[in-house]
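Appendix B. Chain record.
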Amino acid sequence: MAFIHSTDAAGNTLRYELPAEEGVLITLGCAEDATLRFEGEGVAAQHATLTFTDGQYAISPAEGAVTVNGAPIEGAMLLVEGVDYAIGSLHLSFSPEAGADEEGEAPAEESEPQKKVVRRKKSLRSTLNTPAPVSRTENPIVTLIIPFYAIAVVAAAFVAGLTLRYWIVTGGFLPAEWLNK
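Structure tokens predicted for this chain:
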């Protein structure tokens, strides 16, 4: 059994139990029909989706941006424990197994089967320094231009060096016969 924890700006944390059924699509957002409904600034109606495939959960942006440790993602990314995911103003964290929460207490039972509330003062922002796996696609034009740019910089430095050497050796920047024409 796995859980997703959402923490709002006030430090209130809600814990949601995630189903471990292959191919299940879980929608995150503020819409009435969202599987996990979140209220918060910047949360879209169908903000993101979670899927369970091959024993792992993945998060994907839908109508809103999803950031991982502060960096936006463009496609699906596996959920990893200890990483800070954000949708709008809410910070999400993932725990792959049930058990005691961070304060060492077992989760309390409530009337709703999939939602458990745990109030904590500790912020999840401490995980922001954890490096996030970010996939970047390089523009092929940029890939071609970078070597030429490096060659141009080296050539300019070489010419500047030759000019400076000529000036030091001759005592002038340009030969006198060039200036008298």
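Further analysis of this model is presented in Appendix C.
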